[in-house]
Amino acid sequence: MAQCTHLDSIREVHPHSRGCEECLKTGDTWVHLRLCLTCGHVGCCDSSKNQHATKHFHATRHPIMKSFEPGEDWGWCYVDQLMLDLA
Ligand SMILES: [Zn+2]
Ligand SMILES: [Zn+2]
Ligand SMILES: [Zn+2]
What we know:
The protein is 17% helix and 22% strand. The chain is α+β, with helices and mostly antiparallel strands and 87 residues long. It has a five-stranded antiparallel β-sheet with strand order 2-1-3-4-5. Strand 3 (64-67) and strand 4 (74-77) form a beta hairpin. The radius of gyration is 12 Å and the shape is globular. One zinc ion binds next to loops. Residues 20, 22-23, 30, 43-44, 48, 50, 52 line the site of one zinc ion.
């Protein structure tokens, strides 16, 4: 079974914002929010039209994000394309 080898990039982050940082600037809307566990960037999910969480990964190479939705404890490694249980 594949394992994520990027868990050491997880930091104790504080979310930068309560919504997608880029969408808040442009006045856009989003569907769900994702939190970067390396720097605390908040971006919108791939169901959102701007997909800022994925764009953040491509811009920064920060590999792991976590759902920023209340009650959701799953994460995702963009490099390994693996779902992570962060509960
Ligand atoms: Zn990984
Ligand atoms: Zn966004
Ligand atoms: Zn980041």
